[in-house]
Amino acid sequence: MFEQILFPTDGSNGAVVAFDHVLDLAVRHNATVHLLNVADTTQSSVLRRQDDDVETLVQEGERTVREAENNAQQRDVDTVTEVTSGEPYREIIDYSETHEIDLVVMPTHGRQGLERFLIGSTTERVVRRANVPVLTIRPDDDGTITYPYQDVLVPTDGSNCANQALSVGVAVADAEGAELHLLSAIAIAALGVDVRVDVQMEMLEESAQQLIDDAAAFAADAGVEPTSKAVEYGPSIHQTILTYIEEQDIDLVVVGTHGRTGFDRYLLGSVTDYLVRTSPIPVLTVRAPESDS
Question: Among residues 286, 281, 255, 284, which one has the least CA distance to residue 139?
Fold first, then answer.
């Protein structure tokens, strides 16, 4: 399902870890990998690197994509390379749209120090704005990425964005031959201390169960029978999801970039942000179309 994969790279250790996974994906899906390096020429970046001119940055970028291309060739993966300059997140998003990319893969952070091309804020901006799914990988995690994915988790709150993520998650589980897990999380802390808490809990649980049933029906219609359909409670939404990931040995979590707002909503944008930064496994984020956001 992923035929054109974009991998923005800065040659950092984080990028190297993520690139190994990109090649695994490319081999399995017979995909072409687009290797992009962006020389950050924004004013703040230039001020941090007074000794570096654009030409030097471009030369470093060419060397970075060339090394990545050589690694890809060793696994018979087709590549397209490009080095450009500008504001990294804008260049990445523009490239993904111009070249009809199916998936963007990025580490959660890149180089540290003066020569940073891809930093955390770049990844976060791409996650929030890209119109295609973005797979983020924590390069500092000690664990090994399991691939092919065996267990895929899709948390849902019933929002348009979460439903879009559900569609992608079901497709990934189908393409990878993985088990599909559906989760609706309820944050106990959000209820507070109130004499009506029992009533609130009952209403939330009923709503959450309906969301799970609807999601399971969608998956079944697409030919994927969920392995589990869980309504879980925890101190926070993101912690509940992380706990489920650990307990069920999940290999990939698929989430919307933002969800509903209000008291009885489960998956908020801040939850996705937190998962991208802290999840021990890859996180595939999906953004709903602008009109549905």
Answer: 281
